[in-house]
Amino acid sequence: MPQFDSTFFTTQLFWLFITFVFLYVLMSTLTIPKISAILDKRKHIIDENINDAIKFKTETEVLIARYKNIQSESRIKAIEILKKNDYELTKQIEDRQKQLSERLNNQIKSAECSINDTKQHALINIHEIATDISKIAIMKLTGVLYDDTKIAQVVTTSIEDN
Question: Hey, where are the domains in the chain?
Answer without folding.
Answer: 9-161
